[in-house]
Amino acid sequence: MQRSFRLFSFINSNRDKVCEILNKPYSGHKAAPTVSKKPVDPRRIFKVYRFGGIASKEKPQVMNYDLDISTCGRMVLDALIKLKDMDPTLVFRRSCREGICGSCAINLQGSNCLACITAIPPDKTINIYPIPHMYVIRDLVVDMTHFFEVYNNLRPYLVRRDAGPLGKFQYAQSIQDNAKLVGLYECVLCACCSTACPSYWWNGRRFYGPASLLHAYRWIVDSRDEDTEQRLFELRDDFRAFRCHTILNCTLACPKGLHPGFVIAKLKRLIAGLDKKPPPEIDTMKFSSSGS
Amino acid sequence: MAFYCCGRLGNTSLLGNLAKFRTALGSATYAQAAAVPKITFKKFEPPKEEHHDIRNERLNRPLSPHLTIYKFQITSVLSITHRTAGIILTGYATALGLGALVLPHDISHYVTMIEGLNLSPATIFLAKALIAAPFGYHFANGIRHLYWDTAKGLTIKEVYSTGYAMLGAAVAITLFLAAL
């Protein structure tokens, strides 16, 4: 469902133009799951992927758990916690329970999602697997080191040519320039999109994946960042960005409603030189003299 | 603290003899137990650089299932079909090229051979449709891909609608080619 957001209202001459930008909904669209009218039996079977870890010397298997979901909260994470009450050896990552930390990414009924913000689907059997094509540490916990290493390598911070006194003044950014970051800064690095991409499955070591590419674009398109040329040069490769074949599984998987597929298409145009990053609308160093 | 005071007291009068006696007996082991625990220092060695895959292979960690469990969605299915159609078309090109190179007769000979089979027009139409299907699909989806390269038409709604439109166009192209 596409909703438009009015972040704030203000009175000035370019009000309509800016409001239009802020009213722009996320490009990602999630079709609302159809809610059947007849009541579904709350007693469900949870088929959960289990693996005891490398020390246990056992093979991965799928265990069945019977759970009455009327005894637990609405979300899959609530069900997992209830299952952990039943079987304390079940292990999964979780932290914020509100879809902002990105810890609880799982594969539910074949698609990736965040367990804490995904309602238990109205099916009799619920399949829970770890996010695909990642090394499993234990049960639903996977090794995310490479995913974060790639993210760190793209220098996810502002780079300015003359790094003056940091923290002395704010870098000025117009409202339109800030609005360009909407749909980019909300990414929580849950890896739902990257692990949904078949190209990332086969080329995971050299292809950056939709999550990192979304962040690469976020730093390139930020008007306050001055290292655009170097950032684009680092991406000019056969593998880093161009292993994306517009499969678009990433956008379907994103639990925050972001649109990595669209962003990567824009990024590819920037890398190829077909598009140029526009200069900042207002002088970024505007507040340097006054200071505060 | 109390023990220390006892020691102090021991420097004077007869209580001191008592303290000295106790000190001589138990102070050695008691002092060691109450003192700082044994600390060994090791020189810091940064963790050795190891490739992600090599490290996980060494640890014998299994890979989480992917193709076997992931949902087939219209996006991925249309994409892999595009790739498969492309491979089939490459097969056609290779077959035609190699055939032209190594086969003894002219192409008209083989056309006559197929005509000689006396297949019904329906069978011929079906065969032509099957052969033209990869071309029709790859052509229509190729245009969709080129449209995506302009960074347009990438919202999920548009992906679905252009997807269905593309399937219709693919069928139309296939039927057109089969009718030739």
UniProtKB/TrEMBL annotation, chain A:
EC numbers on record: 1.3.5.1
Entry GO CC: mitochondrial inner membrane
Keyword Ribonucleoprotein: no
Span of domain 2Fe-2S ferredoxin-type: 58-132
Pathways involved: Carbohydrate metabolism; tricarboxylic acid cycle; fumarate from succinate (eukaryal route): step 1/1
Biological processes annotated in GO: respiratory electron transport chain; tricarboxylic acid cycle
InterPro entries tied to this protein: 2Fe-2S_ferredoxin-like_sf, 2Fe-2S_ferredoxin-type, 2Fe2S_fd_BS, 4Fe4S_Fe_S_CS, Beta-grasp_dom_sf, Helical_ferredxn, SDH/FRD_Iron-Sulfur, Succ_DH/fum_Rdtase_Fe-S
Membrane topology: Peripheral membrane protein
Location(s), subcellular: Mitochondrion inner membrane
GO molecular function term, any single one: 2 iron, 2 sulfur cluster binding
Pfam families to which the protein is assigned, alphabetical: Fer2_3, Fer4_17
SUPFAM superfamilies named in the record: 2Fe-2S ferredoxin-like, alpha-helical ferredoxin
Catalysed reactions listed for this entry: a quinone + succinate = fumarate + a quinol
Keywords assigned: 2Fe-2S, 3Fe-4S, 4Fe-4S, Electron transport, Iron, Iron-sulfur, Metal-binding, Oxidoreductase, Transport, Tricarboxylic acid cycle
Keyword Lipid biosynthesis: no
Cofactor needs: [2Fe-2S] cluster; [4Fe-4S] cluster; [3Fe-4S] cluster
PANTHER family attached to this UniProt entry: SUCCINATE DEHYDROGENASE [UBIQUINONE] IRON-SULFUR SUBUNIT, MITOCHONDRIAL, SUCCINATE DEHYDROGENASE IRON-SULFUR PROTEIN
Family assignment from sequence similarity: Belongs to the succinate dehydrogenase/fumarate reductase iron-sulfur protein family.
Protein's name in the database: Succinate dehydrogenase [ubiquinone] iron-sulfur subunit, mitochondrial
Organism of origin: Bicyclus anynana (Squinting bush brown butterfly)
Gene that this sequence comes from: LOC112057102
TrEMBL record, chain B:
Major location (coarse): membrane
Record-linked InterPro entries: SQR/QFR_C/D, Succ_DH_cyt_bsu_CS, Succ_DH_cytb556, SuccDH_FuR_B_TM-su
GO MF annotations in UniProt: electron transfer activity; metal ion binding
Keywords: Heme, Iron, Membrane, Metal-binding, Transmembrane, Transmembrane helix
GO cellular component: membrane; mitochondrion
Location(s), subcellular: Membrane
Membrane topology: Multi-pass membrane protein
Sequence intervals crossing the membrane: 85-104, 116-139, 159-179
Pathway: Carbohydrate metabolism; tricarboxylic acid cycle
Record carries keyword Cell membrane: no
Family matches, as Pfam families: Sdh_cyt
GO terms, biological process: mitochondrial electron transport, succinate to ubiquinone; tricarboxylic acid cycle
Identification of the protein by name: Succinate dehydrogenase cytochrome b560 subunit, mitochondrial
